[in-house]
Amino acid sequence: MSSKIITLRKPLLSNRDPKVEEDSKPGAVTAPAIFTNISRYSLIVVTQAFAGHLGNLELAAVSIVNSVISGFTMGIALGMGSALETLCGQAYGAGQLDMLGVYLQRSWVIVNTTGLILSPLYIFAKPLLMLIGQKQDIADAAGTFAIWTLPQWFAYTMNFPVVKFLQAQQKMMIVAVVAAVALGLHTLFSWVLMFKLKWGLVGAAVAISVVQCSSSAGVYIFLEVRYYRTLILIAGYLKNPEISVDALSICLNISGWTLMLAFGYQAATRFASKTLHALFSSSVSNELGAGHPRTAKFSIAVVVINSFLIGLVLAPLLVIFQQEYPKAFTNSEVVTKFVSNLTPLLAFSVVINSVQPVLTGAATGAGWQALVAYVNIGCYYVFGIPLGLLLAYKFNYGIQGIWLGMISGTVAQTCILLILTYRTNWDKEASVAEDRIRTWGGEPNGEETMNE
Questions:
Q1: Which regions span the lipid bilayer (predicted)?
Q2: Which of 19, 172, 200, 254 has the lowest tally of Cβ within 10 angstroms?
């Protein structure tokens, strides 16, 4: 009698935490993810809002550091550790829980080594900014702020892998609680140190560094966000650089705040019923690792639609209150007017940005980090930034030209990701996920072999 090998796949839930289905309810997973992203981004917003009430120079300095120095370094760190999201998500979906800790430790080594290599950018921020042509007073203030935020940088390199580790396991509630506490403490510390003790920018840096070092959740940053921050640097070369940087940074803060809703969907684990599974980023990787390509495909469509509808709701609110919301960040009437003039473009950006992070999350969950990086570089740095420079300087559109270039890059990237997602063979991606898990030391979906 001949013998042959039969491969049996265990049911998905037999290899998962039995609480997974109980926790996979809309309010239990999507809301914490959205709240976490908004809270973490609000740390930056609060710092810049307080700095804006110190003065235009202080706001420009904080914006330059957060956008250029921190944006660049955190973007690099994210790239170095981005594989963790895919590997942990697919390992969890396949039931290989023992591999999660291994992946986390490897990511820590890589990301923290990257942190040490990039730390001189904070230490020598002042001469670097002057080298690339920033004004003396802005470079002085930014250099002081950058040095005092160095502890925040090392906190990020430790916390970023932990967040991805927990996210892959659908454990967003603890991250949300920590993020809420961090935001409350940061607001209190910033007010006391900056205004009561009159430490100014040093107080702002100390506040955010203390909170980040004591928090188990770091701030977010993505490659396309680093592109947005590069535009802050470009604005520093326009006429009235302080006003231009201040106005653009306020708009980027509002845009980033609304982006957190979309990133919440991107990071959301799963909200489920008998017929619907809406999953993102780690959840797409969960389902691919578990061998459920149709679930992943359907979920992407549902979340894209939901995120787009959120953008359609938020955009009109910005237009309605375009004369009021800038006052939360600055006392300057000139800056307020600049921001108000940019609001129609900002509103359009909100709609586009409600979809783009969701598509990026799907690509990341499927393990397409390299492809997404190439798309981002092409759309943002080859197309968007040059177009913004052309409109701003050649055609004298100023800050509006910079923003138009930014929008153009985002629209191009969104269109490409939509096409790629639509044309993807998700059955094939599930097979690739299995191969990836094997390569990194796990066994996909708890496969077993037996002789017949």
A1: 107-125, 145-166, 173-193, 199-223, 243-265, 298-321, 342-359, 371-393, 402-422
A2: 19
